[in-house]
Fold this protein.
Amino acid sequence: MKPEAAKRQIRAIKGVRDILPPESALWNRVEQTARDVFATYGYGEIRLPIFEETELFARSVGAETDIVNKEMYSVVDSPLAALERDRIWLLKRLAENISDGRKRLHFGLNVDTFYGFVKDAARKGAFAVDENEEELDILCSIVLSTESWPTTREETRPTEAEWSAYATNLRDVLARLNFGAEMSLRPEATASVCRAYIEHGMHTLPGDVKLYYIGPMFRRERPQKGRYRQFYQIGAEVLGQSAAPAIDAEVIEMLMAFFDRVGLTGCALHLNSIGCRDCRPKYVESLREALLKVKDKLGPNSQRRIETNPLRVLDSKLPEEQAMIEKLPRIGEHLCAACREHFAALQEQLKLRGIAYEINWRLVRGLDYYMRTTFEIIAPGLGAQNAVCGGGRYDGLVELLGGPPTKGIGFAIGTDRVVLSLQESGKVAAAPGLDVFIAWMSAAAYRAAVKLARRLRGEGFSVELPAEEMKLKKSLGLADKLGARYAVILGENEVASGRFTVKRLADASQRELGEAELIEFLRSKP
Ligand code: HAM
């Protein structure tokens, strides 16, 4: 490594950040509030892995969503990464239609080498041979079929017919070879909760399964205020047999209780129903038709979405598209009878609980698994990224992942944004500061100071004990800078008398106290 490179300062990767004290104390308070509130509603914590098979997210969030399509951090399990890279390279070369005879021969040699590596990896047990048994046999026969090909000079072999059969068979077997799954850092956790629900047979548990999770998620989005590539969520999910609107309402009630307890005021609950498998496709078609009529007036993103996902046009924030969007057909007018009833009953349930909401017909959410209820919480002071929570119902997702028929609903709170909004509101209580700074002088005093620090910490006070001896003036200066409430002065005299000089740093008032009196005194002066 060049000396300049060695000196280069390494910084955190774009879009990720450190959360430092005292801000981390606020994070802890927010997370603890969630734990406390969720426990009163009977939720238990689930701790999930941070990475999962990519397919889990592709199947649940949706392979065509931005989250899965553009924003996931994915890797192939390392011992097989090279094989997987080669497999993909060979497939790409085949797709290029190699026409030159010499290049075909060379390609054949690459395939031979690849087969050698595959056999070697199989021998070492690096991937599931039984899952690939047939493919390995076919690959072997394909490789053997090239034995009659010359290896160096271009001749008439392989003939056009030989090459075409070879390429077709090879393409087919390469596509089927499975060296193990690609993994992704989780962009969200609902999919993992459903995977765990199935894996642990939780459908046999009594009543609804109520779970919450707290932790980081990863999306490769364009970083800005309130949007990070590693961000944090506090989420909760209810899984079970019932889709009763009262469940939706209680989930929302719990969420609002959390926001209330955490002190985030001025939040608005936006609510919508996006229908079910029966009524939504018909609505999407009528939306697409209406969009096609105004296509020329829409921007390129919305134009593209007419084909890929017309619902996402409703998310557009472009000022020039707003008037047009307001005139589009609305899902509320296209719900089937069952969805309409569910939505009406949910609203009754919310009223029963005194929860205010606004219906936002444009709230369609960016994940594929939702049906019927969707909601978001919008918080003040956050600019463009002002959704502090998103959630909704996802009946059928567990089934889609291979589990039993199951209903589900949940939400995820964006912790980064909650913390930002609390900070913007200026109502953040200062983190509890340092109680005592022990200013010690002399080796004998240090021994007494160590004992005193332990005793005070044992009583629950926060104590700073300097590791090295300092002059009294310097000690008191440092105590002041650290924001200590009291300095306890310990010199030879104090050790001899067993009484400490206690100085209140706010007004420099002093008193002498024994150890037990000191503890009483600290306790009585919060
Ligand atoms: P989501 O709307 O993708 O839903 O994310 C939920 C919340 O996470 C957002 O409202 C936002 O506060 C926060 N968030 C998302 N992306 C970022 C980011 N890049 N930086 C900072 N904060 C962000 C879900 O994730 C669903 N799993 C929610 C759910 C649970 N639905 C049912 N159950």
The first strand starts at residue 44 and ends at 45. The pocket of histidyl-adenosine monophosphate is lined by residues 188, 190, 219, 221, 226-228, 231, 233, 235, 237, 387-392, 410-412, 414, 416-417 (CB under 6 Å). Residues 226 and 385 are 6 Å apart (CA to CA). The mean pLDDT is 93.
